[in-house]
Amino acid sequence: MKPSTAHKFVGLLFGAGFGFVLAAANLHEYDTIHRMLRLEEIDVFLLMGGAIGTSLPLLWWLERRRAHTALGGPLRLSRSQPRREHVIGGALFGTGWAVSGTCPAPALVMFASGAGLAAVTILGLFLGLNLRAAHLRRTDGAATAADGEHREVVVGR
Predict the structure, then answer these.
(1) What number of other Cβ atoms are within 10 A of residue 23's Cβ?
(2) How many of the other CB atoms lie within 10 Å of CB of 50?
(3) In this structure, what DSSP letter does residue 58 have?
(4) What is the pLDDT of residue 143?
(5) Which residues, in sequence order, are bridge partners of residue 144?
(6) Are the beta carbons of 67 and 75 closer than 8 angstroms?
């Protein structure tokens, strides 16, 4: 099912709201992230813990009630086992986060708030996406990817 205009509008509202929360919590500030990574401030950890502590029980409850996503698919939490690709991807993501002081969503908020150097991080994000796509083409579909519904699908064939 393709997302309707209403779905896209709701997505835009949620995205804007998420961006507002990130900006209000100063998560678009390089220094905030680096103080957290140096364990000098725990505010960001508390914010993440609060988000996980709020959403996880709600998602478990919705899954038990056999709720569906906005596009009609079943709501299921992923229970996959960690693999080598997860560890490598996590290490790359963490390294990029530590060096740039941001991750994808805050990088966009940084750029929107006038921090021009965020463009370097955004460029790196797109470079990483293109490198992954090139890897999938090179492996001729031997690699798998998530399909958004927590199933693995063969990509590139």
Answers:
(1) 16
(2) 10
(3) H
(4) 57
(5) 154
(6) yes
Q: What is the pLDDT of residues 84-117, one digit of tens each?
A: 878 888 888 888 888 887 888 888 888 888 888 8
Both structure tokens of 99: 């060096």
Classify strands 144-146 and 152-154 as parallel, antiparallel or unpaired: antiparallel
What is the reported pTM?
Answer: 0.62
**CA of 147: how far to CAs of 78, 83, 151, 154, in Å?**
12, 17, 6, 9
What gap in Å lies between CA 55 and CA 9, rounded to an integer? 22
CA torsion sign for 9, 10, 12, 16 is positive
Among 72, 22, 74, 67, which Cα is nearest to 48's?
22
**C-alpha–C-alpha distance, residues 111 and 116, integer Å:** 6
